[in-house]
């Protein structure tokens, strides 16, 4: 090995060591808890294994406050795609890491998470593939797939209630991506499980998925959600106020059902949500020649015409946001970043260089809204005007997440 190569390697090792030190300083590692009692109730992951979560206990003034955060990870819409998840962490608790990092909204340090650092903070693992809405009694003897997400949600909540959540003074249901959708769909259910006097609100991070056509003109995401709801038997677990008026699969979209939610709800989303751009606006099936590949990898590589299409998507997103209704109990932080999930990472949740709207970080906006210090309903100017964004850049080899 020549000297130049050695120096390069040493440089990268130093950078890696620094990043690990920074990660440890800004975050903590939390052990997994398996809900073994759920198995007898049939409340299990796709492969039949028990549900799981990670709990970091609250302390001081936060000892009776609970933040329950739902993990994301897309959905499976048929037997084939669900079988593909059955043997990984998104379908089996056997494949989940025994310890995970808590940072951002889950951090236990006041300087990184000023309003929720000393709460009981929970991350619920996602292993059902339908945002915790499915419930099919029959289990196919060949595939052995279990579609039991709604039971899993209830079993995990009952376990947390028994561990002290039944005494909650303040409680939040939050989540990222498919977990953010869970936080919307189950918001009122979560409130109903808690005592009458508990202050309950819900946060959805990157969970406001919209029903719009892809670049080929097809209703790709609408058809996909229809298959998810059908495969998992989700219809009976979606808000009845919506399913009585329209097709159950449409009630998987927040724009059609969020208005009826009675519990206060805060939406955190990028108007150019990178998952939605990659999988709703320009999925692989709508782009057979890969013309959108570079643009989806890095927004600065988008052509003028592609940016025009994305500006149109932003307008569609803002229009769909009207589904929240005008209530003051709603809050939202909609920035014009190319990003997906901004509450779990320290750099986008609360740091000196974090994204801001009206000079507030997401953490400050959400904290002020939860504690009724001030309302927050802010959108952003169109890309590329927001210089506080942390825009995602993907590995060019990475495929879409469908």
UniProtKB/TrEMBL annotation:
Q: What is the lineage of its organism?
A: Eukaryota, Viridiplantae, Streptophyta, Embryophyta, Tracheophyta
Could you tell me the Gene Ontology terms of the biological process aspect for this record? cell wall organization
Coiled-coil stretches are: none
What does the protein in this record do?
Answer: Hydrolyzes acetyl esters in homogalacturonan regions of pectin. In type I primary cell wall, galacturonic acid residues of pectin can be acetylated at the O-2 and O-3 positions. Decreasing the degree of acetylation of pectin gels in vitro alters their physical properties.
Kindly name one Pfam family recorded for this protein: PAE
| Gene Ontology CC | plant-type cell wall
* GO MF annotations, alphabetized: pectin acetylesterase activity
The family annotation for this protein states: Belongs to the pectinacetylesterase family.
Which keywords does this chain's UniProt record carry?
Cell wall, Cell wall biogenesis/degradation, Hydrolase, Secreted, Signal
Could you name the domain of life of the organism this protein comes from?
Eukaryota
Tell me the InterPro entries matching this sequence: PAE/NOTUM
Question: Hey, what's the signal peptide range on this chain?
Answer: 1-25
Q: What protein does this entry describe?
A: Pectin acetylesterase
Q: State the compartments where it is located.
A: Secreted, Cell wall
Q: What is its EC number?
A: 3.1.1.-
């Amino acid at each position: 090995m020549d000297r130049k190569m050695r120096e390069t390697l040493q440089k990268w090792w130093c950078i890696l060591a620094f990043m690990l030190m920074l990660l440890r300083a800004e975050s903590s590692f939390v052990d997994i808890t398996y809900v073994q009692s759920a198995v007898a109730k049939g409340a299990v992951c796709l492969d039949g294994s028990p549900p799981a979560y990670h709990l970091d206990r609250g302390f001081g003034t936060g000892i009776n406050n609970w933040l329950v955060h739902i993990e994301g990870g897309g959905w499976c819409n048929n037997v084939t795609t669900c079988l593909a998840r059955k043997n990984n962490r998104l379908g089996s608790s056997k494949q989940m890491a025994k310890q995970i990092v808590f940072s951002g909204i889950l951090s236990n340090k006041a300087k990184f998470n000023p309003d929720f650092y000393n709460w009981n903070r929970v991350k619920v693992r996602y292993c059902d593939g339908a945002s915790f809405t499915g419930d099919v009694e029959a289990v196919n003897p060949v595939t052995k797939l279990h579609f039991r997400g709604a039971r899993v949600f209830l079993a995990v909540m009952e376990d947390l209630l028994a561990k002290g959540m039944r005494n909650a003074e303040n409680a939040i249901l939050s989540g990222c991506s498919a977990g953010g959708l869970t936080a919307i769909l189950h918001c009122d259910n979560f409130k109903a499980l808690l005592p009458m006097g508990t202050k309950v609100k819900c946060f959805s991070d990157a969970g406001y998925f919209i029903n719009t056509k892809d670049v080929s003109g097809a209703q790709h995401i609408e058809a996909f959600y229809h298959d998810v709801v059908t495969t998992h038997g989700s219809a009976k677990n979606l808000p009845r106020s919506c399913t009585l008026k329209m097709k159950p699969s449409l009630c998987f979209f927040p724009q059609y059902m969020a208005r009826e939610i009675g519990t206060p709800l805060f939406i955190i989303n990028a108007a150019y949500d990178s998952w939605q751009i990659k999988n709703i606006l320009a999925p692989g099936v709508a782009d057979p020649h890969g013309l959108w590949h570079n643009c989806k990898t890095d927004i600065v590589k988008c052509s003028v015409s592609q940016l025009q299409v994305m500006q149109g998507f932003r307008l569609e997103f803002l229009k769909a946001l009207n589904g929240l209704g005008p209530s003051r109990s709603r809050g939202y932080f909609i920035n014009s970043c190319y990003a997906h999930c901004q509450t779990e990472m320290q750099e986008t949740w609360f740091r000196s260089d974090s994204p801001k709207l009206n000079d507030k970080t997401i953490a400050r906006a959400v904290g002020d809204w939860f504690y009724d210090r001030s309302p927050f309903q802010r959108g952003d100017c169109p890309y590329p005007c927001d210089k506080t964004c942390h825009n995602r850049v993907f590995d060019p080899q990475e495929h879409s997440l469908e």
